[in-house]
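User: Please run a holo structure prediction.
Assistant: Happy to. Please share the sequence and the ligand.
User: Here you go; the ligand is 6-phosphogluconic acid.
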Amino acid sequence: MAETVSGESKAEVKVYDSDEELAVALAKYTADLSEKFCKERDVFTVVVSGGSLIKSLRKLVEPPYIDSIDWSKWHVFWVDERVVPKDHPDSNYLLAYDGFLSKIPIPAGNVHAINDALSAEAAADDYETCLRHLVKSKILDISEESGFPKFDVMLLGMGPDGHVASLFPGHPLVHEKAKWVTFIKDSPKPPPNRITFTFPVINSSANIALAIVGAGKADVVHKSLGDDKSSDLLPVQMVSPEGELVWFLDKDAASKL
Ligand SMILES: O=C(O)[C@H](O)[C@@H](O)[C@H](O)[C@H](O)COP(=O)(O)O
């Protein structure tokens, strides 16, 4: 059973007894949104991070969801990507392919990975161009409020330092206001070269799920959801979508709340 802890913002915080229960709930959450957006828009735009999030999505590619979801309507994107070849062990594409994409009947053209032949800077520009085309073709929604693309859902992890996407604490990229996609060449988490969505894009989302497991994240979860806002905001605290934000925590990650 999930316990819902009320956060101080409009975010909903759900705590699960185990990593397994969290994975079941995250699958249902995603499948329910898929049904809603496929009905409303006839497409479903889904953004994933790398890291442990992909493991947390494992129940989505098992019955009943593997059979009930209309995968042909899905368009998949990465909130951040390491600038390495797609078959490199550090690639977020490869992680998602092995854990998720290889198991579902999604059209290859609906999987929007970066161009791994380009430099970080060029790959970021190229990915932004790809998003602009998808806005023109009405696959990707645009926020009337912000003018930035509005994804149906972002399924994100958080690092133990409070980073989300490749937006790290204290890095100037957290303040980017104009670009949709940008690049980083000095990521404190290896590998150093990455591309990342910016906060204006992240925060234009219709839905964001933050899936966080393990005791190693407990301190930062406590800081993020606690009252003490005296120091600079962590990137995860800057996640504040137009739509709904749900934190999915296992009890270890929530142990200091
Ligand atoms: O490319 C990346 O590094 C990820 O996209 C990154 O943003 C990840 O989501 C967090 O670092 C959390 O990763 P963990 O859940 O593995 O700690």
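The first helix runs from residue 19 to 41.
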